[in-house]
Known about the structure:
Helix content is about 40%, strand content about 5%. By secondary structure, the chain is of the alpha/beta class. Helix 5 packs across helix 6. InterPro entries: UvdE, Xyl_isomerase-like_sf.
Amino acid sequence: MPRRSKPTSGAANDAESTTTSSGIATPTRPEVQLRRSNRRLAQDTREEDNTREIQGRVMGIRPEGEERRRSNTSEDRQETVKEGVQLAIEGLARMERRLQKATKKQKTKVEASVFREALDPRHDDDHDPVILREVILRDAELVDHIEEGGPFAKDDTAKKAKRSTLNSEDVNNPDGPYAEVKSEDTVEIERGAARAPPVNSSYLPLPWRGRLGYACLNTYLRSAKVPVFSSRTCRMASIVEHRHPLADETQPEHPTKNRPDQTKKANMELGQKFVQGLGLANARDIIKMLRWNEKYGIKFMRLSSEMFPFASHPEHGYQLAPFASEVLAEVGKVAAELGHRLTTHPGQFTQLGSPRKEVITASIRDLEYHDEMLSLLRLPEQQNRDAIMILHMGGVYGDKAATLDRFRENYAGLSASIKARLVLENDDVAWSVHDLLPICEELNIPLVLDYHHHNIIFDSEQCREGTLDISQPEISDRIAATWSRKGIKQKMHYSEPCDGMVTRRDRRKHSPRVRTLPPCSPDMDLMIEAKDKEQAVFELMRTFKLPGFERANDIIPHERTDENRPAPKVAKSKNKGKGGKRKRAPEEDEMDGAEAADEGGEAGILCAAIEVSEEDRGMGGPENRVYWPLGNEDWLKPKKREGKAKAAANGDDD
């Protein structure tokens, strides 16, 4: 049969016949366009739409269908443009974060290849042993990560690094080539452990007449069934989301069933109202915390800087007046009635000595927010004067003298109200008491002495570590004078490092509680900066039998008598019929917790229903059970149920 010639071009495919090698024209089979099913076409269309939508979301562009649903009025189009720009900015921010993450990974790869040149000290006698050891250890960690199947497991560079890595036995062998090499952490631990012992004062400020306080959070109230705390916050994305009305505006918001509908027109006021509502809820809980403190003899508290979220933010910020004036005035009224002192401590990023203008602008804006919050409390004259804002000097930026000059310049431009409240505190990173005391005396700024920070950062040429030297009259009198000149009641900070910490960085961490009182005046306002907050104050009260120590009693593990609790149903008898099932007589009925309590016994006590008024809720119950022993914070929550197998493994099942 003659062979059919292969078409050489598109034109040949369109011909109706094909000429064979013998010259005979034969008809060709027309090319048939394959038919695609409607289902396949619909699936491809959906995939294309989904891909286009995902790409649009990444770049901050709304899908076409969603845009068509919006109104065509000029106002709506303008709002659409604004939202599109906002989404584009968010998309670019996400892209930037991904780029930074990828750059960090690439940098690790490069380091893995570069470190090979510095691994063997025999090639270069000038290598610093400390740095060399750090390089070896970092490389060993990278190899371990490779062996565990990390992100570089398939990377050629990492494989080469793994093959050329020194044997770990050579690194750790005391007789090997790296016997003299020590890591920087090891050197710091040895140096920290070998430092001169602290010299502490034996003086105790007893009998105590001052006020003990804690910072921001009450652990007992925070863990209540209805939590009481003053630091509710949100993400900025939530503020933007809540600019849109709820799906059902007649119903309250629900986490899943009634969320903001982003297809509806956005309103800036709605987003601001959302974040301001969080601030109002925080401020209202301060009243409960103050009355709780009064009941247990605590008359000093630091207000959380997060009470009004994003109040000092450049875009989402807002003034507290007039929407928060009433609730803050109520807080101030209760504080004045009880004679409690309230202070604030702006965050670590509020720095008036920074060389960056944007940091200075943000710092001043943050100080204005804190000043407005304290001013709206409407406290009596002396309490208002004592309502201070504590600030750290911040970074050194390579030159302490230049940083102090910038601080002087920026401090001069502050409002009189902020200057009246601003107080400096020595820190645990760079600025000692001897660094700050001269400028505090120069600018008439009170100085807060933090004993814990002083034990980490101090001028070794003028004093020793410990509480003895810093409490001598030549220093303590100068610090006290910075307060008396402005008519403000002096306050101090006290905390202790965790047990077993020897390096400077590790000693910065505060212990859960403190063991003693510092050598301060017996009428000092002393802020206890400890992890366990009010429990650390109770611990001091119990240790030294301070006024009010007898008020707080131990809590019942996993039980709270100051919250509403329904009574469970309790059967009167345990008669069982066939099959092990309980048979109830016709006249038999269940009794509630009240009847069980009337019958007496431990079961009756545990089954009794509890009804607590709103005023007494969270206040410790009739027996004032609010103290939990060190390390038993889990007692504040109901005990978790365990299966029989797990309980038997823990030894709970007899």
